[in-house]
Amino acid sequence: MSCWQTVQDYGLRAIGLGERLLPTADITLCHQFTLIGSGLIWNVYFGAMALALGFSMSLALALGKASQNPFLRVPADWFIFVFRGSPLFIQFFLAYEAFVLLPRNGIEINLIFVEITAETRWLTRAWAGALVVLFLNTSAYAGEIFYGALRSVPKGDLEAADAYGMTGWIKFRRVTLPCTLRLAWPSYTNEAIFLFHATTLVYFSGFPAWRQQGDALYYAKYFADKTFNPFVPYPIVAAYFICLTLLLIWLFGTLHKRLNRHVAPEARSRLRLRMQLVR
Amino acid sequence: MKTVLIASAALALTAAAALAQDVVRMGTEGAYPPFNFIDDATGEVAGFDIDVGNEACSRAELNCEWVKNDWDSIIPNLVSGNFDTIMAGMSITPERDAVIDFTQNYLPPEPSAYAALSDDVEIGDAVIAAQTGTIQAGYVVESGATIVEFPTPDDTIAAVKNGEADAVLADKAFLEPFVNEDPDLFFVADDVLLGGGLGVGLRESDTELKIKLDAAIQSMKDDGSLNELIAKWFDERPGF
Amino acid sequence: MFQFCTDPSLLSDTRWMLCYLTSPKHIAFYYSFGTVLGLLAITAPCALMLGFGGAVAMRSKIAPVRWFGRGYTSMVRGIPDIVFFLFMPIAVDQALEWLRHKVICPDWPDPVRRGSDFVVCAEAKLPLSTSAAWVHDAYSIFLAVLAFSIVFGAFAANVLSGAMTAVPRAQMETAEAYGMSRRQSFWRILVPQMWVYALPGLSNLWQILVKATPLLFLLGITDIVYWARELGGAKTSTFSYPHPDWRLYYFLFLLVFYLALTSVSERLFRRAMVRLSHGQATMAGEAQRKADTNEVTA
Q1: Are A100 and A124 in contact (CB under 8 A)?
Q2: N or C: less crowded end of chain A, CB within 10 Å?
Q3: What is the pTM of this model?
Q4: Neighbour subunits, B (≥3 Cβ pairs < 8 A)
């Protein structure tokens, strides 16, 4: 069987297209590259979706934590504490166990005029349930990052905004927010990288792989167990993830430039490629 | 007197050496009652596999020691020598026989059964839960039904209970207590007979150990002690 | 544990619960918390040493050593740590066995890797199949510690090399002015001073390490996650203490345990930071100095 044939059979296996049965005997290098690559679809899906959804949530959390109002501050504080203080692995397990306890037939929600049934079944599936956990988790981490940046917005910038007569939403949107983002961006890049790495945990926690549709590491472990040779599948995952990380750094670097374009060239901070430990 | 003492000391030494050498590490899963599970009372593995294994070991005069290993990597670990036998409710199948060796069976083929929350499940187009790498999982894949695989037997039951899967396919002896004690669970469809009964899995090169264990199991079959153990752990099974 | 526990099926609810929570299985569960803490206690210094080595390698004048240091420290940046955790124990195990095999049984006719099997001669097995059970356990824990130390060593190398560059250049220049050699100024000036710059990073790293411990479960260690799953799963009357699926409660308990662990260590690190800042040329150190002088004058 040619490698092209293998790619056709297994290239989209992770989302359920192509050959139904995974290769069990005569596993070639091509099989491993193709299947692990197809599993990467899920890593990108989880990472990108959680980041996209978590962005506004984390800003809200940062504002909540910085707020004077205890009704906003205390919940935001606790949310960040719980999700940053406990292992993601345990959060996955716990979320799965909690989601399966939801009533099988959905929850009856009684709105004043109509009664609707909220479907809850899909939450036990990895694509939704794990995404919810990752979304909450990254919101907490990014929330802490944005909170730190929010507190370091230069006083001068805010005073300048006041001087222009900006208040409330306008001041926030035009001055505070861009400045916060600019300050937080290097740490946020780091968080994004870690988040993509964290997506490999999904199929090792409570969430089952339906019809053996899993992520890159799921297939790598499958091959390592089948061939009892760790020296091929794991380096393949590693290579895929290095590419993914480089792509992320490039993407966030581009955005970083955009956020900094108004700053005088010599004062512009370069996106530091040095590692920071935020997780 | 002196010579006798020396002789007995030498004997003791060789006996100790023989004992140390004959440690047979027995791999089991420890999560598949009543075949093998962790006993509340001792915190150690117990069950049908363990009873049969211990009895066979004492008859073959082997010093046996139980090792817990996850089901999905139990065969590779046997082959690479991390333990010497598998007794984990493992059925004898041609595919496994190609990789490892089996003794004669110590339990006749155990029917596999479907358990579900309602008795009108159409097995043909249902979602069936099974443990990864079991004969049941292989059977579901071939039957064309949708399979969801779980690493442990516990998870397969949980999946049916919470509605993730429509039914679970597993050994009937494993499912029976769940179905009997849980008013929500029913057996559905017909049982299927898979595999050639439970055997002790061994490396293909371990012919000596295979002969010893085979003989021990045969003697247990002959004097009826194996049937006693079957009657102890299972309800109304024919035995040998 | 208690005398009345002999037949749990006859007990009242509270007594049943009491017996249940003190069954030997639960005792093993409680012990596994010790396993996790012990592992943390071994891994943290090992990782710190490896990290120190990595950071020093990065500053080396010899190019290959420097490249090695850079490669080591940047590997954790691109590759998820869990890949290492899955890869390292089995890879190290096979590598050691292969080496021993080459040395001990050079005449072995068959290849080591046959199809999907990895088979070395019996004398090269690690640990030997004749060794006692605890040797096998210790070996698998050793592999887990090694995997954790290597990964977290790479993280620590990042932190420490950052801290080394953060020590003010003037300090090193002063050392040179005093005629100290490169080695002397490194050990006497740089290393003692870098800790205060490293501490925030190290405290963060410790938190990450704590939060990575549940992954031990994936390495086949019977840790708290293993027991939580095992104990929490639905139990039929085959067991002495039948109960429905209680995994949610067990995992909630683990969550609380980890929250407590991380928040306690955060507090301890904050205290250490205060102490280390004393007399340092940092903002915190300066603030302390001012506070102290104020106290004296007042």
Answers
A1: yes
A2: N
A3: 0.85
A4: A, C
